[in-house]
Amino acid sequence: MKSLLKLALPTSGMFLGLMLMGFVDLLFVGKLGAAPLGGLGLGNSIFSWVMTIGLGLIFGLDYPTSHAIGAGDHRKAFRIFAQGLHLAYLMTIPAVILVLMMGGMLGRFGLNPEAVPFARTYLMMTAVSFLPIFLFNAGKSYLQAQGIALPTFLVLVVANLLNIFLCAALIEGRFGFPNYGFEGLPYATVISRFFMGFTLVAYVFWRELKIGEKLRLKFDPVILREIMKLGVPASLHMLLEVGVFSLATALAAKFTAVDLAAHQIVLNTASILFMVPLGIGSAAGSLVGRARGAGDAELMRKTGNSALWLGLGFAGVASTLLILFSDVALGIYTHDQGVIEAAKKILFIAALFQVSDGVQVIAAGALRGMGNTVWAAIANGVGHWLVGLPLGLLLAFSYAFGIAGIWTGLATGLTFVAVVLAMIWRRESRRLLSNSLFRGSRA
Hints:
Blueprint: H1 2-30, H2 34-58, H3 62-70, H4 74-104, H5 116-126, H6 130-145, H7 150-171, H8 184-210, H9 221-252, H10 257-293, H11 297-324, H12 326-331, H13 337-352, H14 354-369, H15 374-398, H16 403-442
Helix pairs in contact: 1-7, 1-10, 2-4, 2-5, 2-6, 2-9, 2-10, 3-4, 3-6, 3-10, 4-5, 4-6, 4-9, 5-8, 6-8, 7-8, 9-15, 9-16, 10-11, 10-13, 10-14, 11-13, 11-14, 11-16, 13-16, 14-16, 15-16
């Protein structure tokens, strides 16, 4: 638990820093009205859906990098990181093209006409920021595999301060800058993301040179295939999970601008809380991978189990606080009473699924540390798309539950995924431990 906390705390802080950018964006745009706020939510959900395809592939770096570190092969770990940089460049071009195409077609899907222009503006202007996002996550994965998380966290702190300054300057026209209104947001976002990505990669290079390593950045198709073998299922897992929430936002856009704004506020609140178990799961994945690389099955099992208990404890506290202080939480985003009342109807559901959401992401991280990314993809596909989404559609439209019906479906899907992945982790960790003990007894 001590080793886990040492890595999980700054890693969770890093993920919270990423979410804080979105939170700050919502605070500034929330002052502009329900339509810009809903447009930001719609545009960001589409951007995130495309982004997760690339981030899932980057997650393919986690297991081979941590395994190499656990086995004491630092040079191989850096070669894996180098392939992550190549992968970042390769993924950026199709991601930009896809987002530009989707932004151009938004008006054809019957979405709320007040929100669509803002969503299109956001997508068209932020498409170029895929590159720094992918680079940042490649650097994060490499450092985290070595148990290093503080530099990543510090880069994010500075990037957030830069984003706050730029939002105030460009959205509200402070500090002598012109007032661009909503269009100032994408400028602030893009600049902050480029700072974040290139600064972290520069730190990795500086650190390698400082310890006397040569920067071998040669393209290696063998290692890249190893990354892709793990990254494709991880990408599918993230695509299925984030995709269902992005679709939920699109469905919310079929209701009023107030409902869409309420959905976005609650989703952002739930997402902020989710960053802590996400950080715990990410740290668990790195430590489980290192334990497996070192051949210590018992440490691997204990690390994953400790992470699950830690996540459960946090989720229980977070759910309770969210229910008790709902007025305070919603009042941070907007003073529009109509939006606040609409958000209250779904905030309770979001609070309840914190436990399921925490368990599933930590179990998926631990399994990824074992080199198993397939089960998470399968569980998310079945849980979200065959269980949660159909139930949400039925409740929202056939039974006229509206936005609350969609959120009930999301909560049900998450619970299914959590139960399945927790069971898979328990089975696989016990199997590896039994195999290790059997080999030891024969020796």
